Amino acid sequence: LESIDFKNALEQFQNLVEKMIIQKTQESSGLYTKDDDEIDYDKFYTTTRTLFGPAVKDQNIQTFFRKIMSNLDERPEWLEIFGCFTGGSDGMSSPSKESMVLLVSEKQQITHSVVKRKDIIKGMVKVPLLHFRVTASQRGVLTVFSKQRKSFFSYSFYFHQDTAWINGCDFLPNLKYVVAVTESTIILWDYKSKESKSNGFVIKPMKNCLLCVCTVTMADNLAKDTILMGDDKGNVYLLTITNDDFIMKQSKTEKESQFKVLDSESFNIPKRKLHDDWVGKVKYFSALKRFGSCSTDSIKSFVLDDMKRLEDHLPVKEFSVPKGVNAFTYCGKAKVVVTGG
C-alpha cells in the first residue's frame, strides 16, 4: 500500500475500533440500542478487508476482534491486525542450527489436505493407546490420523453447519467417540463409521457459546465418559455420557439424518461460574485428580480444584494473574503447574 493511502486506511480502521469499543461499553451498561450502524464480526471483517485488502489474514482479523471483545481496557495495537507484535529487538540475528540449544529431528509432513482454503485447525489431540491423532477445523472438518506400517492414513467427515464454528475437540476413550464443541452444540462423531456413512450425535441447544472441551480420564467405569466444557460467560460444565444416552434420548421430532439429535434438556449438566470472562481452556489432570480452567479474567484467572466443586458451592482454589491466563499445563516430574498469559 502507498503511504498516503495506508495512512488514510489506518485512520478509518482506528475509528472503526473506537466505535466498536463505545458500542460494547454501552451494551455492558444496558444503554445501547441496536440500529443499522451496529458493528458485528461480519461488518468488522468486511470493513477491514476493504481497507487493507490481502495485506491482512482472516485469522488475524478474528484474533483482533476477539481481543477487543474480551477486554475493552487492554485494546490490541493496530500492528496485530497484520500479525505483527511490538517488542524490542536486541539486534541479534536468528541462531544457526549449530548454535541452537534444542535440536529437533526431521519431521514427516502429511500431504493429505484436511482443511480447505480459509479454514484453520482449532484442536488437535493425541490418543496414545490407539496410536492416532484427532484434529478439528474451525469450519467443521473432523479428522483421525492413524499411523500404521510407518505411514499415515486419515479419514475425515464434514459436519455441516450454518454459522457455528468448531472451537475444540477431544476423544472419548471408553465410548470410542470424537467429541467437539461449536458455539451452540456438542458433536459426538463415531469415527469408526468410515467412508461416506459417518454417524454420530449432536447435543443441542446449548444456551451459551462453548469455547473449549476436554475429556476426564478415569478408569473407574468403562461404560461412560465425562467431559468438561467452558463457555463465553465464565462457566465450566460437567457432562457424563453413557451408551444408554444414545438409545434413550434421541429426539423424535428430528428428521432422519446421519447425525441424531439429543436434547440437551434431557441431560444433567452441572455448571459453575468460575470466571468473569471467557474460559480459554479446560483440562483434567489424572495425576492430581483435579481439573484446571483459565480465563483472561485478571481476578479469577486460573482455577485448580476437585471435580466436586462443579456440583457444589464450596470455595475453589483460584489464582489471580494480571491480564489473565491463556494456557496452562502440569509437569509430573517437577510437580509444578505452569501458566502462560
UniProtKB/TrEMBL annotation:
Keyword DNA damage set for record: no
Keyword Repeat on this protein? yes
Please give the superkingdom of this protein's source.
Eukaryota
Keyword list, A-Z? Repeat
Segments traversing the membrane: none
Put simply, this protein is called WDR64 protein
Q: Which gene encodes it?
A: Wdr64_0
